[in-house]
Amino acid sequence: MAEVSSRRSALKSIVGSTALLAAPISLTEAMAASAQALGPVLNGRIKQSVCRWCYSKIPLEDLCKEAKAIGIQSIELQGPKEWPIIQQYGLTCALPNGAGMGIEKGFNNPAYHDELVASYEAIFPKLVEAGLNTIICFSGNRKGISDEEGLEHCTKGLKRLMAAAEKHKVTMIMELLNSKVNHKDYQCDHSEWGVELCKRVGSERFKLLYDIYHMQIMEGDIIASIKKNHMYFGHYHTGGVPGRAEIDDTQELNYPAIMKAIADTGYQGFVGQEFIPKRPDPIASLKQAFQICDVS
User: At residue 140, does pLDDT exceed 50?
Assistant: First the structure.
């Protein structure tokens, strides 16, 4: 606790000194500077992960080293070939991939069910062997399928996998994505639809990835949704709105308040940083995001 207090005092000192010695700077600039100087505060209420694809220009091993130094515990959205590399650095893969047919071809279309079921049944033992217990999945695009038909088809396909998921203690997590900007025609694009699917599947081994960026675009009301439906959310993602840039005061969401709302539900899983850094030093942006989400 003494170390945390001293770091907080140092932060106040840095921001205060900067204000006295230089021209006024924004909160964003001050937070970025403090992140560079101090490193992680580690309140620890939120376990943090980083999505690999946002840092694809950085070699995986280098990203692992940087993440660990920051205090991030996971590199996610990686398949079986990458898991050993990640674990070599004492990290986990909080939300793996490696099964399915992509975002557009999902459980809402019965034509894909046999291939999807075989794909996920094959990945479950690999997850167990690697000490992992989640896997991402998708609804698929509508392609003329109504919301009710999509619910019926997804329920039928996912129920075929629940016995195996429960046996291996693996949770399938379907991502909520926006169909307005990034993923046109995607079906699981509102939390209400996803929650109804969870209820119909009726297993603790099926939950939702509540992507804050996507759901702000589609429906807003982020904190109220978290409070109301947190029992159906098995993972969270960040991202600045608009543009999926840094999650600081350059965008419209109040991430410290959102993180506190998540922590207050008793959530024990991970929050994945899934913004695309726009600054010249992407690791500085990641450090800043870590501190923003490291709420007390």
Answer: yes
